[in-house]
Amino acid sequence: MAKTELTKTIERALKYYAPAEIGGIKINKFRGWSTAFEVPAECGTTSGGIIDCVRVNEYFGNLSKNRVCRLFKYKQDGVHAWKCPHGVEDKDIKRACDKADCRWNALATNGVPKVLITCFEIKITKSDFKSIHGHNFVGNLNFYVMPKELYPQVEDLVPDGVGVILYTKANGFVGLRRKINSRFQEMTDSDQKWMVLSVLKRLKDGGGVVFDSTYNPQLQILDIADDEKEQVW
Questions:
Q1: Beta bridge partners of 60
Q2: Are 145 and 123 in contact (CB under 8 A)?
Q3: Do the beta carbons of residue 56 and residue 33 sit within 8 Å?
Q4: CA-CA distance, 144 to 17, in Å (whole number)?
Q5: C-alpha 104: how far from chain center
Q6: Which own/partner pairs from 124-132 qualify as long-range (CB within 8 Å, at least 24 positions apart)?
Q7: Considering just the CA atoms, what is the radius of gyration of the chain in Å?
Q8: Is 54 helix (H, G, I), strand (E, B) or coil?
Q9: Which residue among 36, 43, 106, 118 is least packed, with the fewest CB closer than 10 Å?
Q10: d(CA 208, CA 14)
Q11: pLDDT tens-digit map of 102-159
């Protein structure tokens, strides 16, 4: 079936959709990301269904907080203008330090680099939404993307844990407004690997786009969750 103009417009909006946080996860925007369209839900076959859009990001998981000495970085860089208030020699200063009352002590967040797979299924009409096809939610995060006007008609049909992003227009720019956040679900390393490979295959065939960390789209993308007022470019 041929795509409608509205479907194509929403695809273009998803191409430039770059929130700093999604599903409660802060995206590592110092790294690039890849977005592919019409990606097989199962690598190497279309029998498992076709996902309208898949995004591959990186983020930091397994977060932990530790107290560190900010002087440690200065000493590594050869700066010796400041001394440890507790008498520790420059050569003996370590990054980890539990002296919370020291003015050089800070609370640092540490994490492990991880891959984040987000699946988007585009729905244009209520009959489209109720079709047995196009509900391939196999990513870490999973969203329906639909026109704002459709949401009241299908609100009660959205499965628990699946997020909703609404397409709208305001003052001349394309807008994607997050209505409901997706709940994170784990993927096996094998499933993530095959999904990344599927995305790479679609990119090779011209079915997607890759952005690096310097990307700054001129198209305005509005991404405002219900509890926040934030414009993301």
A1: 113
A2: yes
A3: yes
A4: 14
A5: 34
A6: 124/4, 124/6, 124/7, 124/150, 125/150, 126/150, 126/153, 126/154, 129/153, 129/154, 129/157, 130/154, 130/157
A7: 22
A8: strand
A9: 106
A10: 11
A11: 989 898 887 888 999 999 999 999 999 999 999 999 999 999 999 999 999 999 999 9
